[in-house]
Amino acid sequence: MKKIFTLLAAVLVASAAFGQQKYKNIVVNGDFENEAPAYESYGDMPADAWNSFWVHEFPKGEEGESQYQGTVTIIDGEGVDGSRCAKVVARSDEQAIAAGNRVENNGNLASWDCQFFIYGTEPMLQGKEVRLTMWVKADKAGSIETQAHYGPGNYNHYQLFGNVSVTTEWTKYVSDVITVSADHSKEADGKYFQSVAFNLSTDKEGNVFYFDNIKLEMKDPKGEQTGEVSWINFMRKGIYSNDNITGTSSEGEWSCTNFTVQDLNITEGNQQQPAPVVEVPGEPGVYAVKVPVPGYYIEEVEDLDEDGNEQVDDDGNVLMKSVYKWNNGTLVKGINGNPDGAAAPARWMCQFFVSTLHKMKGGEKYKFVFKAKADQPSALGTQAHYGPGQYKDYNTFGSESDFPLTTEWTLFELGEAQGKTVPSGANGCQTITFDCVPLEGPDNTFYFIFEECSFTEEYVTDADRTLGDHEPIAVLINTDEEEKATTIDGSGMLNTFEVADFSFLDNGKDGIKLLSQKESDEEEGAFVDTFSPLMQWYDGGFIGADGYNTQELETGISIRFDNESVDGNNVNLMVWNAPDSGITVADGAPIQTQLAVSQSGWYYVYDVTVMTEADYEAYQAELAGINNVVVNKKATGIIYDLMGRKVTNPTKGIYIKDGKKFIQK
């Protein structure tokens, strides 16, 4: 065992080289000296040119209508140096009542009845350090509340920089440095923290506020990693990538695989179908993702009245009208308030969706490389979707002029090759959508060959790179001086990685990581969720009685794969509990942990339960007899664990209900 401890200790103390990192300002036009981009066109702009300042206030709206939300008012001559600044008017409670659109909190005017927003060019992710500097004044002395928002008006958390005191003279405000928490970012809910909100209606009598010279700065407290950037390619199989992808947005849950088309020739049921991979006509041995694009035609038909009767003009001529039909004969669905068939197809009515397991974050580095061509010259527009069909933003990665297609292959390289990062409009999305503009006339067909869709390890989460379901396994712990070996079936993991045996783990790059854990930092009040460093698979790792990683090597349970016991798809999982470790596993109280086997940055996760011999024998017996259980005609709905104990609120693991085994995830 000493060899194992020595090898692991050396790995655990090793660390990546980090350098100093400066704070990065993530607002544009903080001194308000340049014209702000108009609200109507912000979706077309790159992340570093977006309007950073927004407002939610009453005076721009009409009485009885909803409050105005859009770009802030910029005025001349009132700034710190007599130049330009932002002006925001917070109405009084009396005005709010008279307008009929008062925002209430416990019967009073809410402090967020009027808000001013700073919208960053990229998200402030959990663990980052953030600080705010600005100059502020008001017509009356008062106080401003600060909040963390996803985007302007999309609330995350009420505690951010605390309250800001305001006087009638320009005063420089410098916040404390805060570390972005899970409450600020709400990443677990599929949201991020990209906007600072100021609640201005703290004075119920109304006030006018002025802001100038605003800087919102962010850095990684760990420093900036030096050396080569590590990329994770989510198109690792190219056109044959076929991950099961799921997600949730405000529109609900969605699921898909990497490539999906919206087939307008399907008139009933789901128009979204997996995109086929085909051999390209005229190019033997060349395969690509095929995207059929229907053409349309114009037909002259009688212009019937509401009752279906023929109409004639004053000269007795039958009235006719033009309608638009797809080449399958069905009317083009009405858009922009037009009835069906009244207008030509919109470019987004035929779409091709490219989705990945990674949820994009505005401002992160990315590479998106593909080749495309078409049977007839055409073009592509782009959108950002949460999942296929769940729209977020248009022209996100470029417009039709950026993606001209001909009958010959054209290579497109987005992101890193252009010096661009993920646009803010794609923040929170997992789908890059192509608007396949239909042509009047014959049908068209597009072909795509994907080389990569890569993101850096800095922004890729463990969940993003975990393939397949968590596989439950039980292992036996020793009660003496000897290691205990449990043989497990590794075929699920090997099939996921598409390898035949475990030899791929010997290459020095791949290996095993021990459980995903949460650690509390009492001083910072933050939580860290991470796998421990990558190790050679036979080195393994150590856990404590709570199942979490421990660097107290001599007082932990060692779990490792035995690279000398590989038998086809089976491998021994070796467990060693040092006699003086002080860790005991009582009957009926197993330790639960996780192991993640890694291949080229991708994980296959095992949910591991460390058991005593008595529990392990019962577990094996339960597995052997699970299919022979006699079930009463009346299902009871009672849940039992594998030890036969009744369970009220099952946590993650294997259970039995009505005689059938199921996995609680």
Would you write up a description of this structure?
Helices cover 6% and strands 39% of the residues. Strands 2, 5, 6, 10, 14, 15 and 17 form a seven-stranded antiparallel sheet that branches. Strands 3, 4, 9, 11, 12, 13 and 16 form a seven-stranded antiparallel sheet that branches. Strand 24 (277-279) and strand 25 (287-293) form a beta hairpin. The protein is globular and about 100 Å long.
Main sheet overview: 7 strands, antiparallel
Gap between N and C termini = 34 Å
Provide the β-strand percentage band: 35-45%
The low-confidence parts are 1-20, 38-49, 627-636
Q: What is the overall silhouette?
A: globular
Mean pLDDT: 82
* Total E-strand runs: 49
What is the helix fraction of residues, given as a range? under 10%
Structural class: mainly beta
Radius of gyration: 30 Å
Continuous helix count? 5
Which labels suit this protein?
single chain, mainly beta, 49 strands, globular, seven-stranded antiparallel beta sheet
Q: What are the SSEs and their pairings?
A:
Elements: H1 2-13, E1 18-19, E2 24-25, E3 53-57, E4 68-71, E5 73-75, E6 85-90, H2 93-99, E7 104-105, E8 108-109, E9 115-119, E10 129-138, E11 142-149, E12 155-157, E13 164-166, E14 171-174, E15 178-179, H3 182-185, E16 195-199, E17 207-219, E18 224-225, E19 231-233, E20 245-249, E21 252-256, E22 259-262, E23 272-274, E24 277-279, E25 287-293, E26 296-302, E27 320-326, E28 351-355, E29 366-374, E30 378-385, E31 391-394, E32 404-405, E33 410-415, E34 431-436, E35 444-456, E36 471-476, E37 484-489, H4 491-497, E38 511-514, E39 517-521, E40 526-530, E41 541-543, E42 557-567, E43 570-577, E44 591-599, E45 602-611, H5 613-625, E46 639-641, E47 646-647, E48 653-657, E49 660-664
Parallel strand pairs: 36-45
Antiparallel strand pairs: 1-18, 2-17, 3-4, 3-9, 5-6, 6-17, 7-8, 9-16, 10-14, 10-15, 10-17, 11-12, 11-13, 11-16, 19-35, 20-21, 22-23, 22-28, 24-25, 25-35, 26-27, 28-34, 29-33, 29-35, 30-31, 30-32, 30-34, 37-43, 38-44, 39-40, 41-42, 42-43, 44-45, 46-47, 46-48, 48-49
